[in-house]
Amino acid sequence: MIIKEGLAKIEIPDYNNISKEMPVFYNPLSSIGRDIAVEVASKLGIKNVLDPMSASGIRGIRYYLESNIREVHFNDINPIAIEYIKKNLELNNIKEGKIIISNLDARAIEQKYEYIDIDPFGSATPYLYLINNTSKYLAITYTDTAVWTGEKHRKAYIRYNFNVIKTPIKHEIGVRGLVAHLINKGAEIERALIPIYAHSAYHYYRVYMLKRKGSNRIEKLKSQIGYLYYCPKCYYISESESVCPYCKRKMFRIGPLYLGKLWAIKLDKRDYFNKQSNKIIERINEESEIDKPYYYELPSIAKALKTNIPPMDKIMEKLKELGYKVERTHFSENGIRTNAPYYIIKTIFSSQ
Ligand SMILES: C[S@@+](CC[C@H](N)C(=O)[O-])C[C@H]1O[C@@H](n2cnc3c(N)ncnc32)[C@H](O)[C@@H]1O
Ligand SMILES: [Zn+2]
């Protein structure tokens, strides 16, 4: 069957449902991650990319068609995928530039590129050896989000040494836990992996990092790894207090988490992108202006206070009137990121 996505069209074998068992993997929900990926690559001015787990080739093909990248190395361990990558390059009339196709275990690829996009099933940690294949930028997908959010908290500890329980802001916690993990993995090989963009969408997280040398850079990154304390009764979150000031009970310590800036660049929407991708781009452009490593999930506050949720725009207006910064977040439809303290939000809820 032929699929259209972005400026590409690709052929994949017919399938009944999306699973790892597909003869050649393709997931339409990942098109959001791919939209954002081509926009990141364009903004960073990248010229060449390694796509070590290409499947149909859609990702590398979109990089070629939609950014300034003219050199793509496609690779997949699955020989049927290789046949389809070749077909799809023809289908999209990709002839110029430098195209390499290989059928290897990704970890056996020797060439180095300016940018590498690691996109496996599940956890990408077994493939982090590939950090050596990039001279500059790393894009990475993790689809084991239920582990990072704390829904599978025992696995989070076993797999990643990550202490987490499910919270109302589970995806931001997940992404920040993942970024801390990647920074620590980079540090193991004495490289600074500096976050430049990150988002969650459906079943996956995507993180973009700049790889640099230098102990000072690594130390600076590590100094931004810490913990958040969370009260499971009233949902209060704190960067420093370990006892909830409202419930007087011990809070759960979540981490290690990267507490620094997740976003160093702003992206542009494109009219042919999926609506959802443009929404994420817009929300991140806004929320990245607010320097706070967590947001407030409004329904959980209403639940803790046993009250209704005031309309979101009213809450935002009130916070602005009081001189605080406030924006929506891409992590949740019901969340706001603000530099206002929790008690101010509670007052707004109580005075409705
Ligand atoms: C999630 S899919 C990649 C999807 C693709 N990047 C896209 O955007 O549509 C993961 C791919 O990794 C391939 N794969 C699994 N283990 C691999 C390995 N060790 N080395 C290279 N490829 C591998 C699978 O055959 C599969 O095509
Ligand atoms: Zn509490």
UniProtKB/TrEMBL annotation:
Record keywords, A-Z? Methyltransferase, RNA-binding, S-adenosyl-L-methionine, Transferase, tRNA processing, tRNA-binding
Q: Which Pfam families match?
A: TRM
**What Enzyme Commission number does this protein have?**
2.1.1.216
Tell me yes or no: is Methyltransferase among this UniProt entry's keywords: yes
> SUPFAM superfamilies, per this entry?
S-adenosyl-L-methionine-dependent methyltransferases
Per the record, the GO terms for biological process are: tRNA N2-guanine methylation
Alphabetically, the GO molecular function entries are:
tRNA (guanine(26)-N2)-dimethyltransferase activity; tRNA binding
EC class of the enzyme, as a word: transferase
Q: Which family is it part of?
A: Belongs to the class I-like SAM-binding methyltransferase superfamily. Trm1 family.
Name under which the protein is recorded: tRNA (guanine(26)-N(2))-dimethyltransferase
